[in-house]
Specification:
Number of strands: 18
Strand content: 25-35%
CATH class of the largest domain: Alpha Beta
CATH architecture of the largest domain: Alpha-Beta Complex
CATH superfamily of the largest domain: Naphthalene 1,2-dioxygenase Alpha Subunit, Chain A, domain 1
Order of helices and strands: HEEEEEEEEEEEHEHHEEEEEEHH
Distance between the termini: 48 Å
Strand order of the largest sheet: 12-18-17-16-15-14-13
Shape: globular
Helix content: 10-25%
Number of helices: 6
Length: about 350
């Protein structure tokens, strides 16, 4: 009997880079409240990370691997801006430098920059990490849309969830306004509008808008994708007066790959309201009546995406409504290809 060895199919390097996340970009990795008094271990962007707060509450991140024997630093002790490995007490500073080796003082490990470190920012209730190709002393600024930075005009709530599936399917879902008319047709905010539409693409300074032609402020009618050093998406849903003051309901989304087949999803729910009684009214309505409805809509998306096969995008028959998805996928692949070529050069 002849035995035929089946060789594994090598993964496309462009697809692999997209799967774990493009480099030299900011990503949201967890809500702020995830990191308290003790170190936390998270798997994000193809890495295992150790995160902690020093005595002043400042956040730090190292690769969760002691340079001595690879033990998890996240199980160690916080010593201000350092972590002490639980295995042999090796102390690693927030910048990746080993400051002390208790078992062998003066050894060559002391003083070496032996662990990857990452820069963090805390904004809008979330922790953001700069996913650099290699350690950098100063990262580029984290530039978020005004809806998450202008507290004088906007009020927001962060909705965080972890979904099974590739984060690129979540991108596809948000870049598909037409699914709101069908999947969310029972929603109090997406029951209106035509079930047929044509779409167009409009460029912006930082990306593009994919929008229905001839229909605005009726349903989930458009999606914006932007690159400001972080990839984010934005859309608006018209709201009835019973939804409180503030005009259209704004959603800002950003997503990060976790382990293979898992996605960290961040959806900020926003209304344009200055501080005062109207903002207080909306925040009260949201927490007491609207939040459950919004989670119900997200749950419809989660169930749909989690039940799709991992290779669903290899068996598609796309049509005009999918122009935005095609454009975004092509752009992401171009970015990944450019990064690989730059690394090779």
């Amino acid at each position: 009997m002849t035995t035929i060895a089946i060789q594994p199919v090598a993964q496309d390097p462009v697809d692999h880079l997209l799967e774990i996340g493009l480099k030299d970009l900011w990503y949201p990795i967890c809500p702020s409240h995830f990191i308290g008094e003790n170190p936390v271990s998270l798997r994000r962007l193809g890495r295992k990370l150790a995160l902690w707060r020093d005595g002043e509450g400042k956040l730090h991140a190292l690769e969760d691997r002691c340079p001595h024997r690879g033990a998890p630093l996240s199980q160690g002790v916080i010593l201000g801006d350092r972590l002490s490995c639980p295995y042999h007490g090796v102390e690693v500073r927030h910048d990746g430098v080993v400051t002390r080796v208790p078992g062998s003082p003066g050894c060559k490990l002391e003083g070496s920059k032996a662990t990857r470190h990452f820069h963090l920012e805390e904004r809008a209730g979330a922790v953001f990490l700069y996913n650099s190709k290699e350690s950098v002393d100063v990262p580029p600024p984290l530039v978020l849309p005004e809806q998450l930075t202008d507290d004088a005009q906007y009020a927001s709530f962060l909705c965080y969830a972890e979904w099974k599936g590739d984060y690129r399917y979540v991108l596809d879902n948000v870049m598909d306004p037409m699914h709101g008319t069908f999947l969310h047709k029972q929603s109090h905010s997406m029951a209106e509008g035509e079930s047929q539409a044509r779409f167009g693409v409009r460029p912006t300074d930082h990306g593009f808008v994919f929008e229905k032609e001839g229909q605005r402020n009726v349903n989930f009618d458009w999606t914006e994708w932007a690159d400001t050093g972080i990839h984010w998406m934005r859309l608006e849903i018209p709201y009835p007066r019973t939804g409180g003051p503030g005009g259209n309901f704004i959603i800002v989304g950003a997503f990060a790959p976790m382990t293979k087949g898992m996605t960290a999803t961040f959806f900020w729910r926003v209304r344009k309201l200055a501080p005062g009684w109207e903002r207080d009214t909306w925040r009260f309505l949201y927490k007491n009546r609207l939040e459950a409805r919004h989670w119900h809509v997200l749950e419809q998306d989660r169930v749909m995406l989690e039940d799709m096969e991992p290779d669903a995008n290899q068996h598609e028959n796309l049509y005009q409504h999918d122009l935005g998805i095609v454009r975004l996928r092509r752009h992401m692949r171009n970015l990944a290809q450019a990064q690989l070529e730059q690394a090779a050069a």
